[in-house]
């Protein structure tokens, strides 16, 4: 299998206040592990710019203009207590979207079997008109709709294993049966959504886990809820919102997963993708705030992608 890595130094340029968990060091840690010899043969690409029309696959024009207008000339400015802008934040967040679209193009055209986008800021909390939870634009949803618009894809499954529920992704696809949103996450926890009773148009599957849950519970959520839904949906493409903040080392939550659990989940996704969509997976980095836990988990994730 050919695993494409999409990343660029631009993702260091979204600056946040000192002590903020979603910091440039996250990308430095990911890039350091992806620079190891075991990953040297993987093809690499930088993101391509996207225009406002692409961002409008998930966000109205006035929201895009509001984010652009809020950019500071220097320093950082808060959109809310968690979500910040610096002078290049719009460009960086747009490049995260561009990475998702480029990765989609690569797997849909057969240039790569699967792809991992080492990008920031994350995207799954961004709603149509609201930036929140460190997120500005809905990377996964835009990637899914780009696949539908540019490649004629009918059904996209977005699988989210970030420890925080992807309220933005869920809200954006709530009434869109062509996109399945399947998530396992800690609950209760920010942002407060993600109950099993939240089902959208029958295209939303949530398998919340209680604080303290371990890899066994995580696997049970997949085998009991997420995998049956994905198999029944029979996607043409799988997009993974790959957050690694359910790792036991992470400071922002209370699950007890290891990097081996993320490897298992990745292998489960590759099996489903092989069955339904010729192995096509695009993985987008979401959370993960302990640098060692993040690096170890990304390495396990990529190892699983490239050996399948």
Question: Can you put this structure into words, describing what you see?
Answer:
It is a single chain. The protein has 308 residues and is α/β, with parallel strands linked by helices. Helices cover 38% and strands 14% of the residues. The protein is built from nine helices and ten strands. The protein has helices at 25-34, 52-55, 61-69, 89-108, 139-151, 167-173, 215-233, 259-276, 291-306; strands spanning 3-6, 44-45, 77-78, 84-85, 114-117, 156-160, 179-186, 204-209, 237-242, 281-285. The chain has an eight-stranded parallel β-sheet, sandwiched between helices. β3 (77-78) and β4 form a beta hairpin. The longest helix has 20 residues, at 89-108. It is globular. The mean pLDDT is 98.
Number of strands: 10
Number of helical elements: 9
* Averaged pLDDT: 98
* Elements, N to C (H/E): EHEHHEEHEHEHEEHEHEH
User: How does the overall form come out from the CA principal axes?
Assistant: globular
Strand order of the largest sheet: 2-1-5-10-9-6-7-8
Topology:
Elements: E1 3-6, H1 25-34, E2 44-45, H2 52-55, H3 61-69, E3 77-78, E4 84-85, H4 89-108, E5 114-117, H5 139-151, E6 156-160, H6 167-173, E7 179-186, E8 204-209, H7 215-233, E9 237-242, H8 259-276, E10 281-285, H9 291-306
Parallel strand pairs: 1-2, 1-5, 5-10, 6-7, 6-9, 7-8, 9-10
Antiparallel strand pairs: 3-4
């Amino acid at each position: 299998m050919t695993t494409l890595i999409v990343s660029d130094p631009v993702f260091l340029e979204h600056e946040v206040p000192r002590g903020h968990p979603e910091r440039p060091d996250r990308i430095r840690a990911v890039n350091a592990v992806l620079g190891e010899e075991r990953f040297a043969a993987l093809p690499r690409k930088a993101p391509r710019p996207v225009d406002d029309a692409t961002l409008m696959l998930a966000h109205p024009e006035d929201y895009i203009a509001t984010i652009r207008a809020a950019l500071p000339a220097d320093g950082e400015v808060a959109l809310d207590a968690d979500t910040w802008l610096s002078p290049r934040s719009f460009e960086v967040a747009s490049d995260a979207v561009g990475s998702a679209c480029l990765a989609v193009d690569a797997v849909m055209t057969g240039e790569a079997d699967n792809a991992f986008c080492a990008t920031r800021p994350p995207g799954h909390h961004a709603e149509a008109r609201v930036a929140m939870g460190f997120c500005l634009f809905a990377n996964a949803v835009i990637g899914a709709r780009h696949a539908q618009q540019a490649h004629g894809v009918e059904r996209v499954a977005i699988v989210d294993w970030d420890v925080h529920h992807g309220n933005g992704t869920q809200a954006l696809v709530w009434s869109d049966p062509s996109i399945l949103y399947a998530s396992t996450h800690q609950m209760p926890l920010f942002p407060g959504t993600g109950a099993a009773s939240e089902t959208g148009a029958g295209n939303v599957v949530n398998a919340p886990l209680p604080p303290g849950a371990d890899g066994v519970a995580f696997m049970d959520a997949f085998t009991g809820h997420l995998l049956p839904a994905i198999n029944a949906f029979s996607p043409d493409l799988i997009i993974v919102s790959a957050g690694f903040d359910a790792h036991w080392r992470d400071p922002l939550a209370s699950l007890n997963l290891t990097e081996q659990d993320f490897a298992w989940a990745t292998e489960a996704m590759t099996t489903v993708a092989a069955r339904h969509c010729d192995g096509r997976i695009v993985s987008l980095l979401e959370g993960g705030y302990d640098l060692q836990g993040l690096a170890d988990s990304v390495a396990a994730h990529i190892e699983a992608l490239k050996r399948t």
